[in-house]
Amino acid sequence: QFTEEQINDGVEQLKRANIETGYDTAAIESYAVFTKLREEGVVPKGVKFQVGLPTIASVIGPFVERAFQAKVSPIYEAALFRATREIQDKIPHEDLSIQLDLAVDTAYWEGEYLTPWFDNT
Predict the structure, then answer these.
(1) What is the DSSP string of the chain?
(2) Which residues of 62-86 are buried (b: 16+ CB within 10 A; e: fewer)?
(3) What pLDDT is recorded for position 104?
(4) Whole-structure pTM value
(5) Which residues pair with 99 in a beta bridge?
(6) What contacts 24+ positions apart, CB below 8 Å, involve 110-116?
(7) Which residues, other chains included, contact 8 with Cβ-Cβ below 8 Å and sequence gap of 6+?
(8) Is the sign of the CA dihedral 3, 105, 50, 86 positive or negative?
(9) In 3D, which of 59, 44, 42 has the Cα closest to residue 117?
């Protein structure tokens, strides 16, 4: 059990850490391999480069202690949005397809196994 002070201290440390998801770095590096393979004819012309991203719920729900979830969610959301923007800025739109991984989200929608920290309406 965490005290409110411990939760707030942890959240403040996380805010100062300026977290990064790394999804942008991985996608941009992978895109370089994709374009090389396309130039070599291994990947046919017209095939899009797909980037799969987990939703905020898919990360916060399973991996963040319940007491921290509501306060950590906006911090992670900002990091995910920065990564998504970087992907969109660096990979040509005509080549890019972004897929959201909703595996955990459906469990929240159903309400059978997980209780969301957010308004589930």
Answers:
(1) ---HHHHHHHHHHHHHHT---SHHHHHHHHHHHHHHHHHTTSSPTTPPEEEEEE-HHHHHHHHS-GGGHHHHHHHHHHHHHHHHHHHHHHS-GGGEEEEEE-HHHHHHHHTSS---SS---
(2) eebeebbbebbbebbeebbebbbeb
(3) 83
(4) 0.85
(5) 52
(6) 114/61, 116/57, 116/61
(7) 71
(8) negative
(9) 59
DSSP structure class, residue 33: H
What pLDDT shows up at residue 110? 78
- Look up residue 16 and give its two tokens: 């100062």
Query: Amino acid letter at 70?
Result: A
CA distance 49 to 120: 32
Q: How far apart are the first and last CA of the chain?
A: 28
Tell me which residues of the chain have a pLDDT lower than 50.
none
Q: Identify which of 73, 54, 77 has the alpha carbon closest to the alpha carbon of residue 64.
A: 73
